[in-house]
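Worked example

This section walks through a single chain of length 345. The input is the sequence exactly as stored; nothing has been trimmed or padded.
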Amino acid sequence: MMPPASELYVTLIASPRDNGIAFTGEVHWEDGGKVAIDRVWRVGDKWQLINSFNSEAPQIPAIFDRSVRAFGPDIQQTLGQLRVGIVGCGGTGSAVAEQLVRMGVRHLTLVDADTLTESNITRVYGSTPSTVGKPKTAVLQSHLTAIAPELQSHAVAAMVTLENTARELIPCDVVFGCTDDNAGRLVLSRLSTFLATPVIDLGVLLGGDGALASINGRVTTLAPGGACLVCRNRIDLARAQTELRTPEERVRLENEGYAPVLGGVEPAVVSFTSGIASAAINELLEHLIGFGPSPRPTEVLFRWHEREISTNNAKPRPGHYCDPESQKIGKGESSPFLEQAWPGK
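Given that input, the structure is written out below as tokens.
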């Protein structure tokens, strides 16, 4: 039996080198068109960005001297070429973005549908009283560009739970999930499997009414072959379904008892949101450099009120989409996108 026809095919020639792998390749279309493959993003236990053999290594600016002394020129060049998505530009997302830019990341996609409020000024990097009422993505983009004028950033002022918004993350090599809502995490969890794109999801939960009783943080790394956020029980599916509704539908279903009532404003403090942002970036560096234990843990839990940190690994549930046996890993742009229902469809 002949294989089904395809609109394109790929040729790739690779050979080992002392410092890794050298390759050249092209993507060919049915109409005879073709384009060269200039980079390969290798996602496994360790992550590696490999440029084609005839690519010129970019010059490393002198401002990164201290970083190069820490992890060498190859990692610094990788950071400069990585395409990073950040979903959620509030307390954690803005802290992640600023640290990445200061480390040398120069390609960012910023996603957030909200505008800046007065209470955001206490946590959101780059915010001032004069920016209240402006889109968070625009405020953060302006702030980051002031730090690095050569930054290439794409601001998307929309919810990641909309298909067109989620598609904006397709070019990203890695995505940081800094959103508070369960529905957004549900999208990112599926994205990590279907696009084989690592997602580093993070969050902070403060307990206590006016007096801190607990301070919990979490950094979960989603990559092909590992458990997704659903399998880890990190998503409230009932709340996710409610969050996907329009505001009018939410109120109606909540009043009728068919949907969980969504919570109000959660407490937040800049020291804790910044701390968990730093921990998330450390996970990116660990996967690029490999300075930690092997096998690498896929989740780090912080209980600051108890001065405790713990790690764990989790396996996919048999038959779930993140299970390698399901053959969903790297399936690409399926129909519907990410094999999920989207609002308005």
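What to look for: Helices lie at 65-81, 91-103, 136-147, 163-167, 182-194, 237-243, 247-255, 270-289.
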